[in-house]
Amino acid sequence: MDYREVTTTAEYLGRFETGEDWRQQIESFAGEVDADAAWFMAMGAVQDAELWFYDQDDKEYYPVEFDEPLEVASCTGNISWLDGDRFAHTHAVLSREDGSTVAGHLNAGTTFAGELYLRVFDTELNREFDDVTELDLWL
Ligand code: ZN
């Protein structure tokens, strides 16, 4: 485990805008508050979603699209820098009317409504290509 000790410098509560992309809203908010490293939790609902599944053999992300209203039963993620931009690495458990769920790496989703908690740390997280996993991992 590669690790560092961090101290919280700020905490925020935010409400998502209807009709805008879930992940992009987190990224633009992180930019607004100059977060170079942060962790977040969120909940709410989306009108559609695109999850990415990382195939560990192919070393490729494969998208799975859901064009239906889904509850964001749980969403967690973090903010770091990737290729010069803030990146919100976002995972979510999304639920349907019957209570069944789909889950994974949330690339995109049109927000219906949502609430965000963001905790900012006194460090800067950067992602770089990892030869073993072929993922962009924290340095
Ligand atoms: Zn992921």
Walk me through this protein's architecture.
The chain is mainly beta and 139 residues long. The protein has a single domain, classed as Hypothetical protein, similar to alpha- acetolactate decarboxylase, domain 2 (60s Ribosomal Protein L30, Chain: A, 2-Layer Sandwich). Helix content is 8%, strand content 60%. Strands 1, 2, 3, 4, 5 and 6 form a six-stranded antiparallel β-sheet that branches. Strands 7-8 form a two-stranded antiparallel ribbon. The longest helix has 11 residues. It is globular. The model has no long low-confidence stretch (mean pLDDT 98). Bound molecules: zinc ion (ZN). Zinc ion binds next to strand 5.
CATH class: Alpha Beta
Biggest β-sheet: count, sense, barrel? 6 strands, antiparallel
The CATH homology group name: Hypothetical protein, similar to alpha- acetolactate decarboxylase, domain 2
Helix coverage percent of residues?
under 10%
Strand count: 8
What's the architecture, going by CATH?
Answer: 2-Layer Sandwich
CATH topology descriptor? 60s Ribosomal Protein L30, Chain: A
Bound ligands, named by name, code or SMILES: zinc ion
SS strand fraction: over 45%
Summed up, the domain count is 1
Low-confidence stretches: none
Overall structural class, as computed from helix and strand content, comes to mainly beta
Order of helices and strands: EHEEEEEEE
* Shape annotation: globular
